[in-house]
Amino acid sequence: MLVEPSSQASTPLEAIHKGLNAAFYTCAGFAFLATVISATCLFGIGKVGHRDKKPSSAEEGALEIKSEPER
Questions:
Q1: What is the pTM of this model?
Q2: Can you spell out the DSSP letters for 6-70?
Q3: b/e per residue, 15-24, with b = 16+ CB within 10 A?
Q4: Which residue has the higher pLDDT, 19 or 60?
Q5: What angle do CA 43, 28, 33 make, to 5 degrees?
Q6: Are 55 and 63 in contact (CB under 8 A)?
Q7: How far from 17 is each of 6, 10, 13, 24, 28, CA to CA, in Å?
Q8: Phi-psi category of residue 55: left, alpha or beta, with phi > 0 → left and psi -120 to 50 → alpha
């Protein structure tokens, strides 16, 4: 689409401002809606990549000694 330079100067600044405000509020509304949808749908998913803590090697040795039967 080609635009003539003379047509750009004839657009009132108030019309441009209203258009930019509409675009901003539309974008903000969609972002808020996406946040609400993702918060409700992903509420019970838990932590991603969460693993149970493994005992360190010192703790493993202590557990092994305690688990042996007494003689």
A1: 0.50
A2: HHHHTS-HHHHHHHHHHHHHHHHHHHHHHHHHHHHHTGGG--TT--PPPPPHHHHHHHHHHHSPP
A3: eeeeeeeeee
A4: 19
A5: 30
A6: yes
A7: 19, 14, 6, 10, 16
A8: beta
